[in-house]
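Weekly sync, protein design subgroup
Attendees: M.S., D.O., the rotation student, P.L. (late)

Item 1: inverse folding check
M.S. brought a backbone from last month's batch and wanted to see whether the design step gives back something sensible before we order anything. D.O. pointed out we never logged the input encoding, so this time it goes straight into the notes. Structure tokens as presented (304 positions):
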């Protein structure tokens, strides 16, 4: 399924043949996109929900969302799953900010955790400054301490926090800092065994933002991480080999935005890198990454 919000996915002509999909549907959302981008009010989310749910087929769904500015719309897909599941989330940002609007691309993890069927969110790959003083930036540290969120950066130095937190699978507390278990340290296979042991549901939802990748592999609207594409594809394959994938969403394409809302304009100016105009090479880089992910996810849905 393509959520047609910014036209980026429609422009990628090679994706249709990436895997033997049983159907390909588009949901027209460009008219709502300016109000949905970055964050949205509940009434606009309700309009988007109605269109998406009307178009959703039965069974597992893979949705392409375009820019990571729309990542919060993934929750509208997740909320239709009717069995317990774990979200495996690849992203350069934890998307767990409790101070942001409730429907925000930087806070959607908290919305997902409110769904009764979601047992845990396992976030893999962040390198961003969101993990520097995360409590001062509104990070959901209570969920981290309770084990509802498990977070393993690709590479990040210890994070200063102002109160003691219980140790977890991806971190330990020492002298006022969270010492992270970085995926770049050691053998990825060993980390994958530990990650899979944390998934206590048969069903898994994959949520992937390509800003987790190096700029050599993709270019997005946000600051980007350091995870190689090959490592991300290996994670997808490992999850599919051991669990049943009930849905997936993929975002992180680059699209320039002209915000009508003054607050969004300021937020984008402060939080997002100022990219040069996109060119054919940039589009080809993102299309190639999308194609690799689509093939990997399709194989993963058949693996278990």
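Designed sequence read out in the meeting:
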């Amino acid at each position: 399924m393509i959520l047609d919000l910014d036209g980026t996915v429609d422009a990628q002509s090679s994706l249709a043949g990436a895997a033997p999909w049983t159907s390909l549907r588009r949901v027209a959302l460009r008219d709502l996109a300016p109000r949905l981008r970055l964050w949205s009010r509940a009434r606009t989310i309700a309009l988007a929900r109605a269109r998406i749910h009307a178009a959703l087929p039965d069974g597992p769904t893979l949705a392409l969302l375009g820019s990571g500015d729309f990542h919060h719309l993934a929750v509208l897909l997740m909320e239709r799953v009717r069995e317990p599941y774990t979200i495996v989330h690849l992203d350069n940002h934890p998307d767990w900010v409790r101070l942001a609007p409730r429907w925000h691309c930087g806070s959607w993890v908290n919305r997902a955790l409110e769904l009764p069927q979601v047992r845990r969110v396992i976030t893999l790959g962040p390198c961003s400054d969101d993990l520097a003083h995360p409590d001062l930036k509104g990070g959901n540290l209570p969920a981290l301490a309770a084990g509802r969120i498990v977070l393993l950066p690709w590479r990040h130095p210890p994070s200063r926090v102002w109160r003691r937190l219980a140790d977890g699978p991806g971190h330990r507390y020492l002298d006022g800092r969270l010492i992270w278990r970085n995926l770049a340290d050691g053998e990825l296979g060993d980390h994958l065994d530990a990650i899979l042991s944390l998934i206590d549901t048969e069903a898994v939802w994959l949520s992937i933002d390509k800003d987790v990748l190096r700029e050599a592999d993709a270019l997005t609207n946000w600051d980007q991480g350091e995870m190689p594409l090959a490592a991300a594809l290996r994670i997808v394959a490992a999850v599919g080999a051991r669990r049943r994938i009930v849905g997936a969403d993929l975002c992180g394409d680059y699209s320039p935005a002209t915000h009508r809302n003054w607050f969004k304009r300021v937020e984008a100016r402060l939080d997002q890198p100022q990219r040069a105009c996109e060119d054919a090479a940039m589009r080809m880089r993102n299309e190639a990454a999308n194609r690799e992910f689509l093939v990997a996810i399709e194989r993963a849905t058949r693996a278990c």
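Discussion: The mean pLDDT is 92. Residues 2-303 form a domain with the Arginase; Chain A fold (CATH 3.40.800.10).
Action: P.L. to compare against the previous round before Friday.
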